[in-house]
Amino acid sequence: MPEIRLEGVHKNYGDIKAADGLEFSVKDGEYICLLGPTGAGKTTALRIVAGLTEPDSGRVLFDGEDVTAVEPEDRKAVLLSQTYSLFPRMTVAENILFGPNIRNWPEEARKKTLANMLDLVRLTRRSDAYPRELSGGMQQRTALARALASGAKVLLLDEPLRALDARLRISLRHDLRSLAKSLRITTIHVTHDQDEALVMADRIAVIRDGRVLQMGTPTEVFDSPVSPFVANFVGQSNFFQGSVVRANGRIEVRDEQGRAVFARAAKVEPGEKVVVGIKVGNTEITREWEGYLQGIVERVLFEGRNLFIDVMVAGLGRFSSRVPTGRKAEFAVGDKVSIRWNPDKATVFTLTDRSLDDELRVE
Amino acid sequence: MPEVVLENITMRWGNVIAADDVNLKIHDGEYVTILGPSGCGKTTLVRIIAGILRQTEGEVYIDGKSMANIPTEERDIGYVFQNIALFPHFDVLENVSYGPRVRSVEKAEWERISRRYLELVKLLDKMEMFPSELCGGEQQKVSLARALSTGAKLLLLDEPLSALDARVRVDLRYDLRRLVKSLGLTTLHVTHDQEEAMSVSDRIVLMRNGRIVESGTPENIYMHPRSIFAANFIGETNLLEGVVKRADAVSTIVELRDGTLVDAVPTEFKEGDPVVVSVRPENVYPAVAGLHVVVSSVTFVGTYFRVMAEADSDDRVEFDVPTTSEREYNKGDDVHLTIDKWSTIVYARTPGGIGEATRLE
Amino acid sequence: MKRIDPLINFISGRKFRKGWHAFIIAFFLIFVILPTVYILSYAITDWGAIESGVLNNKETMGMIMGAIAASFEIAAIVTVIDFAVGLPMAWMLVRKKFRGKNFVDTLIDMPLAVPTAALGFSSAIFWATTPPAMNAPPFAFGAITSPMLLIILLHIVFSYPYMVRSLSAILEQIDETYEIAGQTLGASKLTAVRTITLPLFRAGLITGIILCFSRSLSETGGTMIALATMANSAGFNTGPTLIGTWKKLSATNPQLVPQLAFVSILLIIVALLLLIVLKLVVMKVRLPMGKVWPTPEKILSRGLAPKLKDGSAVFFLAVFILIPSFFIFSYVLTSAASLGDWGPFINSLGYSFAIAAIVTAIDLGLGIPLAMYIARSGSKKISHSLDVLVNVPLIVPTAALGFSLGQFWTDQSLIPSVPMLLIIMAHVAFTYPLVVRNVAGAVEEIDPSYEETARTLGAKPIQGFRRVLYPMIKSSILAGAIMAFTRSLGETGATQAVVSDVVTAPVYIVDLVNSNQYYLAGLACIILIIVSYAAMLLLRYVTRKKRGAV
User: Fold this and answer.
1) How many CB contacts within 8 angstroms connect chain A with chain C?
2) What digits encode the pLDDT tens for the residues B123-158?
3) N or C: more exposed end of chain B, with fewer CB within 10 A?
4) pTM of the model
5) What is chain C's alpha carbon radius of gyration, rounded to the nearest angstrom?
6) Where are the domains of chain C?
7) Is B130 exposed, middle or buried (0-12, 13-18, 19+ CB in 10 A)?
8) Under CATH, what is the fold of the domain C16-548?
9) How far is B198 from chain A (nearest CA, A)?
10) Which CATH class is domain B4-229?
11) Predicted ipTM?
């Protein structure tokens, strides 16, 4: 199972830069997620790895070997499209055996592979059904079995769970990852859903406008984002804009109204204009203490196990937080509350020439 | 006076029953979400209300009036489609003003109306662009403005957010509810996403296989689901199969497959009844003693870890551990769990078991 | 099987594929396009002869202008009528469900199976006043005396399927959700269709109009026979009949060549100009959206009005299309039998079928690859230009095409001009686009992800085509084959214009009618109809069987 590497990949469609210096690598047997909004270039990246799209410049390497000029049918990297593309005139069994049939495997080997695959994806009793007779989840499993049966060494999944109901997605995430891992197949999984990426990936590559903004383990990308966009896209964040007052050890940032918040250490100079980001889940609101900021509860949303609370802070905007539903009695719309957080959980970002709104925009 | 009433609505396609004797009342100004897995009949219902589909049996009343022979165009509704359906050959303004224009409204008037709604969805500056030049979320907002400018008081949303990115959905659904409430509209919103349903609705109506199985406020349905299906579909829950060992006024003791005893809320069940105990992951805590499980996987979910484990009874159990916790959990670890008794719900167990009760497709 | 692998590998190589594409395109340009427009070069090379023989000859010019004017007038009227009655029919087929839909669907293709020669004969007997020697049955309508009107009625029949099929194809692509959305916004069905669907329809509408118009423009055989059958039609000519008549005479009188050239050139140029103008007009004209008439449109949308519209569409189909097409049967059954020598007819049938079969085979063999190239080529510019070029042989009236092609191959001395070969090439020229359009259209509809997935699963492009794409487009290929086959079978104009002494079945029937052997002509028509129809049914059966496994 190869290690995959993309180097300096560029691909333009007219004015649109689908890949703009795209680079990342996937270790042998790793399950990575390419995470980003629609139009970020994730599908283009996948197609370039598969060989279906030729990059304008750059290289694709499998196990150190340059495969940029190799035809898709020779790469052993199977692409699963969002709609699965099951061949409509073939049964489940015929779909699954497509790869082996093309390569003229001996009868015995074919029978064995089919039985194994059907068992693996729990479709033994539907082997004679046609794709249109299957539910969404079953179609997805058939497509997976087909990919694995063809002897794929790399699995390229283009938003494999998107077409499924929300509830089904959650239960299939686990199955999908287990399957890939048990067979030790290098997997690149494209998605726009950060919940999905966090739960499924060994490492996540956050992509935007054709380049990788950050690549790391879910913990790294969640706890140590490199930019406000990543901070807000992977788990929602609250932001505070101001200037650095003190920069040794914990950073103190003050805004024009004199409010001060704290964040963990970073390489900044006093006087620099910065943005402090803190995850919604790490933002605490309380009526008992004085925190960094004061505001009025604007909205309390029931989410099930948690309440999602929006607090309006004068001159700053909205700060959101989550509290367990059990604490419901503490917060009502219109209440005055304080906001605080553990400084070690807050990250400081330097402001680029983009405005914060532009930076955070998803579409 | 109720805005929409469905009486004994049944929809049959040959042998398939898409809607099975459905009765539903939606009150004036209410935001109701019809929630359920694909094929449960939710879209069918909404299309019947709109008049796009003709029901096999039953009556639809809007504002007290029977809709029996009234075609779609006369039902005075706003409809937002899942696949957006903006007219590709019209620009944004022409799309949004379509409704007033086909009712022969004066130009000055329909321009005013269209601008007002475009402003409400914050897309006034994109007035002259064509749908293909907008991104998904913007297209859906235009679609909404278009439905609203007809002046209809009843809004039907057919999976309006399903085609959008996860992130865009979250941002858009808050705006949606806020807008609709500020205009005082009655809204019927169809979705398969329970998170979405919980965050926007006054009331959730849960459907399965053509029938309404449960109805209530988000909080009610979450806290007190009346069926295993609802407990599992809305939010997450652990389900433990067993038999009632002893039942009294303070608890129902349930014996699991391997003999472990679980202490659940007092119920009407009697000794020997086959039951399923439901308890949500947030009400299960690691402890020094209690239900014994072996960890099978640990997943990082951002601000906590989700631990999946297997109990000696072969039931799957999931619980959460904050990232600040001192103890580290790894595959193969032995853990004991305490279950918050008063958060448990006990259901009768059918012959089909948990699999049947929770099946989605 | 293993032995084929090296072959498949070779075919899949980039060099081979590039070479193959080049060959396909070269074939198309050299054997189809070039001969079709070759005659235009005469405007430069033979200007002198044209000027003296034609432009300065008042009588000839009069005949030519009259004939061409008649051709275009007829084509225009026919197109308008076919559109007016074809649109509701197409709508019914695509959007409505009713019992007997499959039956109606088959009926619409009927005129395709009836060779125009037979149609011309049948129509003339039904509609027009005929000479007493013909013994037309008493229940024939028999009242039309104007040749122009008869031709119009005739042309309506065989252009009809082209119009309905083209319109249905586009309609199927337009999502009904748009109309429904319009209705939820308060528009009545009619308003929604008028303001939303029709504008979206526009691009594809041109196809229907072009095909219909050019089909009428091309028509020779049926027109000739109809004119010969009806009483008092002498002197009336359309462009193609003029070419047919003169080509025959040109075997002994070479002075006629400049005249023939001129007519052909004129037909081609005006046809192409019309294509351009049409495209521009239909695409640019902004339909009035401002005008909405809710009340009348509401009334027309519900209750009686739509039923009336559908009913009249079906009525039109029955009375104006089907009855005239099959009237020949009642004629033969009620006439006194007078048999003659069957030999020549069997011969001509043999020729016709042989030609049609060979032509169809060539069309498929070389047309499918071109269609694939147009549909799947990465380069938008190339595939778009090819797409436009493919329309040219369809628009050029086949008689002019035949003459042009004939001159092309006789003028150059590289390949010997064997009459059969010339006819085959002429037929290929105007049937090839039918296959290409059908197949390209079908392939464009199919999500490329199927073939791409097959590739990533290890299939070479050719394997992907055979196992994945081919099963999905089989019915379109067959549809294209049927259209090509029947078109070739029924063609008269091109056949006569290329080589006037080869007798195919339609040409033979024309001869029979011209020599007053009406009964024989009638019988020959029936046999031709039965055989064509059987061939079509067979192909349809095979298609439907496979479609059952969809």
Assistant:
1) 74
2) 999 999 999 999 888 999 999 999 999 999 999 999
3) N
4) 0.85
5) 24
6) 16-548
7) middle
8) MetI-like fold (1.10.3720)
9) 6
10) alpha beta
11) 0.86
